[in-house]
Amino acid sequence: MGEDLEETLNAHAFWHFRYQQQAEWTREIRHYLFSQAGVSAGDHLLDVGCGSGAVIEALAADGFTRVTGVDIHFPILASKKSRSDIACADGSLLPFLNGQFDHALCHFTLLWAQDPRRLVCEMRRVTRAGGWIFALAEPDYGGRMSYPVELERLAALQTAALKRQGANTSMGRELMGLLCACGLKHVSGGIIGAEMKGDAGHALRGDLRVLRKDLADSMAPQAIEDTLAEAESAAYAPGAMWYVPVCYACGQVA
């Protein structure tokens, strides 16, 4: 029992750190979009799919004091470090009143939603007229760029594994269309950090634990390690690429 508890705590600590990394990746675009939309620190925000609260922590660091989080997975909520209000609920059936929040956001969430249109429509429902919906980060694995062949092979394996887990690996490219289909106006979007930095080795190394988890149900442990070792060696070749476009979009509630 003690070892199981320690393993669980270690896993929660790792994923919270990973979510903190992701919140840092979107910090600049979050600041820009909030500025353009007129979001103020006193506004009441809803974070759908808040996980362990990493984005809520980042918002608190920016001065936001009224943030409510909701996530369907209770164990990850229980590990949450921030002290904001939270609710364990399905994002497609939010337990909030119409127009209860000034703005709503999500972060690496829609690709896992069984019905992303319903989820965004729920975000729209609980956001006041004139408020904004922000989908701050959704990857597009279908548009990923990996090179050389060892990294291409690993990328294909991960994308296939994510599809088997139920992820929409093309959510990034669908994002703006999704917000438009949900009746939002003034929809705009883009790709975060589209520049190529030539640090495929560093990027892959940071993804190794995530890759092991994604591939665990489709490959034997030794095959996973052999594939990762081969890819990691190739990632330091000149011109190597390990890049997944991460898209954002926002729209205003009519």
Task: Offer a few descriptive terms.
254 residues; alpha/beta; Rossmann fold; seven-stranded mixed β-sheet; two-stranded antiparallel sheet; 9 helices; 9 strands; 21% strand; disordered N terminus
Summarize the structure.
The chain has 254 residues and is an alpha/beta fold. 45% of the residues lie in helices and 21% in strands.
3D shape: globular
Question: What is the succession of H and E elements?
Answer: HHEHEHEEHEEHHEHHEE
Based on secondary structure, the structural category is alpha/beta
CATH superfamily: Vaccinia Virus protein VP39
Describe the structure.
The chain has 254 residues and is of the alpha/beta class. The chain has a single domain, classed as Vaccinia Virus protein VP39 (Rossmann fold), CATH 3.40.50. 45% of the residues lie in helices and 21% in strands. A seven-stranded mixed beta sheet has the order 3-2-1-4-5-9-7, with helices on both faces. Strands 6-8 form a two-stranded antiparallel sheet. Strand 4, helix 5 and strand 5 form a beta-alpha-beta unit. Helix 1 crosses helix 3, helix 6 crosses helix 9 and helix 8 runs antiparallel to helix 9. It is globular, with a radius of gyration of 19 Å. The N and C termini lie far apart (52 Å). The relative contact order is 0.14. The N terminus is likely disordered.
List the helices and strands and how they pair.
Blueprint (H helix, E strand, L loop, with lengths): L1 H24 L1 H11 L7 E4 L5 H8 L5 E5 L2 H5 L6 E4 L12 E6 L9 H10 L1 E13 L5 E3 L1 H16 L6 H11 L3 E8 L7 H16 L5 H14 L6 E3 L2 E7 L2
